[in-house]
Specification:
With about 220 residues, the protein is an all-alpha fold. It is built from nine helices and two strands; from the N terminus they run αββαααααααα. A two-stranded antiparallel sheet has the order 1-2. The chain starts with a helix and ends in a 5-residue tail after the last helix.
Length: about 220
């Protein structure tokens, strides 16, 4: 009887120790940061945003390579709106666009200085995009973004989008001839809009040069 009682006491003691250890481990686990683990934790905001396989941050860096928006130029909010608008035309995911806009150093400055509401900026940009899409069948990003895309990727916006669209249409053509035709028509509209925008910018520059030359000849140039 005494032996059986001793064994029971030992088993009860072991169970108590195990129970205490489990409780201690549970408390420790609850107090840990979710990123404290054997392997590094990658949060959603750390995942690079891609556009058709290209790193969006590289495109943004190319866009502002010469000069970043700054307080002295009073253009940080305006540029954040322009950037958000262009990014939404590349990727319609407003949350992803908000994350990447907020990650820019000059946007972080206005968040710290005046609690800039980037979510509202992105919403305003989305409304701008919606208005553009009402006016044009195939809207394009700004000339600054088109130039940045070509600088960062080595290809024009049209080359990237048309090549990938045609590939997708080829894969679907066997089952949906109408979808293929519609996609090619959209590509043609985009091409006309793209070259029209580039031609307009080219002739605008030529007109400005001509105006400056006339002013120089007449002696009325404004400095």
């Amino acid at each position: 009887m005494r032996t059986r009682s001793l064994v029971s006491d030992i088993l009860l003691y072991i169970e108590t120790v195990i129970h205490r250890l489990r409780n201690r481990m549970a408390v420790t686990h609850r107090g840990q940061s979710p990123c404290v683990a054997e392997s590094p934790c990658v949060t959603e905001s750390q995942v690079p945003l891609k556009w058709r396989g290209y790193d969006v941050q590289s495109i943004i860096d190319a866009r502002y390579r010469d000069k970043l928006p700054c307080a002295a130029d009073s253009n940080r909010h305006t540029e954040s709106l322009k950037l958000a608008t262009d990014l939404l035309m590349l990727d319609g995911d407003k949350q992803a666009v908000q994350r990447i806009v907020e990650s820019q150093s000059w946007v972080k400055e206005i968040i710290d200085e005046r609690d800039e509401n980037v979510a509202q900026t992105v919403q305003s940009a989305a409304e701008c995009v919606a208005q553009k899409e009402k006016k044009y069948a195939s809207s394009l990003p700004s000339k600054a973004m088109l130039t940045a895309i070509q600088t960062a990727t080595g290809k024009t916006f049209l080359e990237i989008t048309k090549a990938q669209t045609q590939t997708a249409m080829t894969l679907r053509s066997a089952t949906s001839g109408d979808a293929c035709t519609e996609g090619l028509k959209k590509d043609d509209d985009m091409a006309r809009h793209y070259f029209g925008a580039m031609a307009e910018a080219y002739f605008d520059n030529k007109l400005k040069d001509a105006s400056v030359n006339v002013q120089r000849k007449t002696g009325n140039i404004m400095l």
